[in-house]
Amino acid sequence: MEKINLIEECKDAKSIVISGHIRPDGDCIGSCMAMYLYLKKALADTRITVCLEKPADIFHCIKDIDEVDSGFCAKTPDVFIALDCEQSRLGEAAALFDGAKKRINIDHHVSNEGGCGDVNYVVPGLSSTAELVYELIDKSYMDEEIAKAVYIGIIHDTGIFKYSNTSPKTLRIAADLLEYGFDFPAIIDETFYEKTYVQNQLLGRALLESIVFMDGKCIVSAINQKILSFYNATPGDLDGIVNQLRIIKGVECAIFMYETGNLEYKISLRSSKYVDVSKVAAYFGGGGHVRAAGCNMSGNFHDVVNNISRQIARQIKEYDEK
Ligand code: 5GP
Ligand code: MN
User: Fold this and answer.
1) Residues 6 or more apart from 147 whose CB is under 8 A from it?
2) Minimum-distance ligand 1 atom for the alpha carbon of 296
3) What's the whole-number mean pLDDT along residues 228-238?
4) Residue 241 · residue 282 · CB < 8 Å
5) Could you tell me if the CB of 89 is within 6 A of ligand 1?
């Protein structure tokens, strides 16, 4: 897909809203903030707002993160920039997207083929939306704060450069970013590795109560609402659990689910080598990437697990027969 000229696309706009997906992760937040910091510099006379659900406290190191409009109070803009998602995952920002004069979509999800905007820059399989944002930035505006936001986006979607979506180009971009001199070891610790006591307790519970099946190729664990409220935790406190399940020796596919309502689950899927979890998630109306995807499902724990594992088993069988 052809690169887009952001400044050209936005130069006549009086107002711009930048937004991303519900339950924003590091890539979504890093991309939105890098875009925000960049456009604020490049288009000084334009009213620019980032509309996102409240970013987790770990992202406080990003410049101007407290300017995020988490109440979605912004007015319908001339240009809406949707980052790291398709239209259906914009949540409360969807109304602003619908009314905008021009919609720009920048994303790397395979499930968003072609893009949902009037102008699209969607490159499936790329490490992160932050990598795409970096590509589109006029480098004469780059500075330490923009570099930091891009870096946070990239490390969160690549598991700090270790998932298969990390390319030589991703690492070259990371090298360029380090030239700006931000404190990257602190950022990695603060935004990626550090967990609160409660988060670790929930991880412990999820591991203890996990179930392996399909000869150890699959693992599932669930956290219900009772447990979440017992620990006074939010869904954000469950980030990373699915990755810990996935790295268990022999596991090809990890399923982590938490209850969002009565008999309603948010599902996270991860795979190691060959199961395409974006296909599994898409089958149930969700989406994502080949190695990391998600969806929402209804039913009791056993029904949900049965339904998902049938789709996973199909792929494992196909692979085993090859
Ligand atoms: P996570 O398991 O961390 O929530 O999500 C993994 C990946 O799948 C992320 O890239 C996320 O954006 C995507 N994803 C998660 N849930 C959904 C969903 O319900 N629909 C779509 N389209 N993508 C999802
Ligand atoms: Mn992403």
Assistant:
1) 176, 177, 179, 180, 182
2) 19
3) 95
4) no
5) yes
Task: Give the closest residue (by CA) to ligand 1 atom 14.
Answer: 294
CB-neighbour burial class of residue 290 (10 A; exposed 0-12, middle 13-18, buried 19+): middle
Contacts (Cβ under 8 Å, ≥6 apart) of 203? 195, 240, 241, 244
- Pocket probe mutation, ligand 1, options 238, 295, 296, max atoms within 8 Å of Cβ: 295
Give the pTM.
0.95
Please write the tens of the pLDDT for every residue from 246-280.
Answer: 999 999 999 999 999 999 999 999 999 999 999 99
Closest atom, ligand 1, to C-alpha of 293: 8
- Ligand 1 atom at minimal distance to the Cα of residue 239: 3
pLDDT tens column, 14-32: 999 999 999 999 999 999 9
pLDDT of amino acid 322: 86
Mean pLDDT, range 182-203, rounded to an integer: 97
**What residues are paired with 119 via a beta bridge?**
104
Contact 131, 97 (CB under 8 A): no
Q: Is the CB of 294 under 6 A from ligand 1?
A: yes
- Strands, E assignment, the chain: 15-19, 47-51, 79-83, 102-107, 119-122, 211-213, 218-223, 253-261, 264-271, 287-288, 292-298
Question: What six digits make up the tokens of 255?
Answer: 């399923």
- Rounded Cα–Cα distance for residues 242 and 101 (Å): 39
